[in-house]
Amino acid sequence: MVKWSGSTSTEPLDPNNPADRDKIYILEQFPEPGVNFRLQDGVTLTFGSADDAVEFTRTTSTTTTTTTTDTSPTTEEEGEGG
Q1: Which residues face 46 on adjacent strands?
Q2: Which of 2, 31, 65, 68 lies 20 to 30 A from 10 at CA?
Q3: d(CA 35, CA 31)
Q4: What is the model's pLDDT at position 72?
Q5: C-alpha distances in angstroms, 12 versus 31, 49, 75?
Q6: Which residues fall within 8 angstroms of residue 46, CB to CB, at 6 or more apart?
Q7: pLDDT-derived band of residue 28, with 50, 70 and 90 as boundaries?
Q8: CB 4 within 8 A of CB 46
Q9: pTM of the entire structure?
Q10: First to last CA, the chain
Q11: What are the sequence ranges of the domains in the chain?
């Protein structure tokens, strides 16, 4: 387990200290859940405080903007010619 590098928490959270375990939030897991990995490569859990969890979701959330383009053919009315 590694503490989130962006942590602003002054709380010294220790995953090995039973008193801290209810204050620790898992912010990220690598490899991500559902991804196959070799056991010898291990799993890295990034942790932080409750405040870190809020900040982490703000900094990692992405806003997706969807734009649509009208691709229907346009027809121009033909005027009467003479």
Answers
A1: 2, 28
A2: 31
A3: 6
A4: 55
A5: 26, 9, 69
A6: 1, 2, 3, 4, 26, 27, 28, 29, 30
A7: very high
A8: yes
A9: 0.62
A10: 83
A11: 2-60
